[in-house]
């Protein structure tokens, strides 16, 4: 199992693209605890220093011609975490150039190529890191065998072809914005 540090090395070696498929309704990311608390308290959603540093690095890579793209497969109603992810995550990362798609399967079946496919990163169309989670908590990643990489390329292609750009999906679902939520 790769550690987070070993997974980071895959980003450092990326030559032209990093694609991420997200499938979970909740991610338990220790580094997001403060931002989530601020979000749910109605405070600023602007990135903290560590998040801004990551976004600026991603933006520089995009400016140099690399592609950062992801699709999140989800169902409505959104979990509180996904509301946070959309408004304090995707709405900001797209401003920095990340391509984010939403594949909403609330009213339709998931495309067959995505059934049973969990979270993964696909680097440069040739390296797949399978991400392992337990209750949304990251456990580590495993490199997929070369023989199954075509399956993950297909999953990426199908996810992107089936997804709606985040900004379009978000504009169609204002009910999930923080200003429309009732206090707990």
Automatic annotation (TrEMBL):
Phylogenetic classification of the source organism: Bacteria, Bacillati, Actinomycetota, Actinomycetes, Streptosporangiales
Official protein name in the record: DUF6879 domain-containing protein
UniProt domain DUF6879: residue ranges: 6-171
InterPro entries: DUF6879
Originating organism: Allonocardiopsis opalescens
């Amino acid at each position: 199992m790769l550690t987070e540090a070993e997974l980071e090395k895959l980003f450092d070696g990326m030559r032209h693209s990093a694609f991420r498929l997200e499938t979970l309704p909740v991610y338990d990311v220790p580094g997001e605890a403060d931002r989530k608390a601020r979000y749910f308290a109605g405070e600023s959603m602007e990135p903290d220093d560590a998040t801004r540093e990551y976004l600026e690095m991603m933006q520089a890579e995009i400016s140099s011609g690399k592609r950062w793209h992801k699709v999140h497969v989800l169902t409505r109603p959104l979990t509180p975490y996904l509301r946070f992810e959309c408004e304090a995550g995707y709405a900001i990362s797209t401003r920095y150039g990340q391509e984010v798609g939403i594949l909403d399967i609330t009213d339709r079946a998931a495309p067959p190529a995505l059934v049973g496919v969990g979270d993964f990163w696909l680097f440069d169309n040739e390296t797949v890191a399978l991400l392992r989670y337990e209750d949304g908590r990251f456990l580590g990643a495993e490199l997929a065998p070369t023989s199954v990489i075509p399956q993950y390329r297909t999953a990426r292609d199908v996810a992107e072809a089936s997804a709606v750009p985040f900004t379009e999906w978000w504009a169609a679902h204002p009910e999930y914005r923080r200003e429309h939520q009732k206090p707990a």
